Amino acid sequence: MQIYDFITKTENGTIKIPEQYKDKVPSVVRVVLFEEKPWKFYQNEMSTMHKSDFLLPPTMDTLGWMFDREEANER
Fold first, then answer.
1. What is the reported pTM?
2. Sequential DSSP letters for 4-70
3. What is the full per-residue pLDDT of the chain (75 aa) written as tens digits?
């Protein structure tokens, strides 16, 4: 199986194969579609995030948990 990766626009439900691949693509193909979002979408998403969202380790409230060494070692 050969994989050809390209971005194109659909026209009335039709996918246009770029010229450089037309001679290589056989008549029977498997199509998997991934939605390509405009770059502005990613810029807007990232603008709502802060550096601290990426740099802080995950935290968990363990107050009230009972830890038993014997139970932990049984597993």
1. 0.42
2. ------EETTEEPPPHHHHTTS-SS----------HHHHHHHHHT--HHHHHSPP----TT----HH
3. 788 888 888 889 888 888 888 888 888 888 888 877 666 665 666 666 666 666 777 788 888 888 788 877 876
